[in-house]
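Why do we care about 3D structure at all? Because function follows from shape, and shape follows, mostly, from sequence. That is the central idea of this module. The next example makes it concrete: a single protein chain, its amino acid sequence, and then its structure expressed as tokens.
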Amino acid sequence: MTVIISSDTKLATNILSKTPAAYCLTIGDCKYYGSTGNVRKRFYTHRSKLRNNIHESTRMQSHWNSMDTPEFKMTVIGTGTAEECKATEDLLLEQHHGLDSCLNSKKAKDKLSDETKAKVSASLMGKKHSAEHKAKIGAANKGRRSMKCWGKPKDSDVWVEFPSRTAAAKHVGGYQSDVSKVIKGKQKTCKGWVFTGTEPDNLMLLARG
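And the structure:
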């Protein structure tokens, strides 16, 4: 079953109301992974909190607030028992947590064994729907590569190369979302630093962060 729900969608009362599922929220170029026993309720909870600026995930709320026209899409990656869906969520967090494109602030609580990973992969890649599930997992995995960027204090000529926007934000004591805003031209500086996603042409000195 493939279900993709846009944030402006109005769900019928019986749509996925009691369906345990692992899901992915896509907000702009970033993603958030979770699991729930009630997709419909979780969908409306995420949407309401984001729109009212009260979401407990500060990273997701900050990213949402930074968008000119904020919206998200909720993709149901897999359904099953609550335990199976939680294991799927944990596997996705092991794969994605710490990347620029991942909005989850917490890691998986328990590291999955190879046996559990194999079972989860098998359930997601079942023979009957292998092409369908591969497409869903591929969509969830899109954007996993960390994005290199360059930054410098606004009054300096020395550029610093960072392996990711997260690393840049950590270096200057700011937020990854603010570094992204500077790179996209939506904000002038982050903690007194300017950033670019393209390697500067006129480097006087390049230090590695």
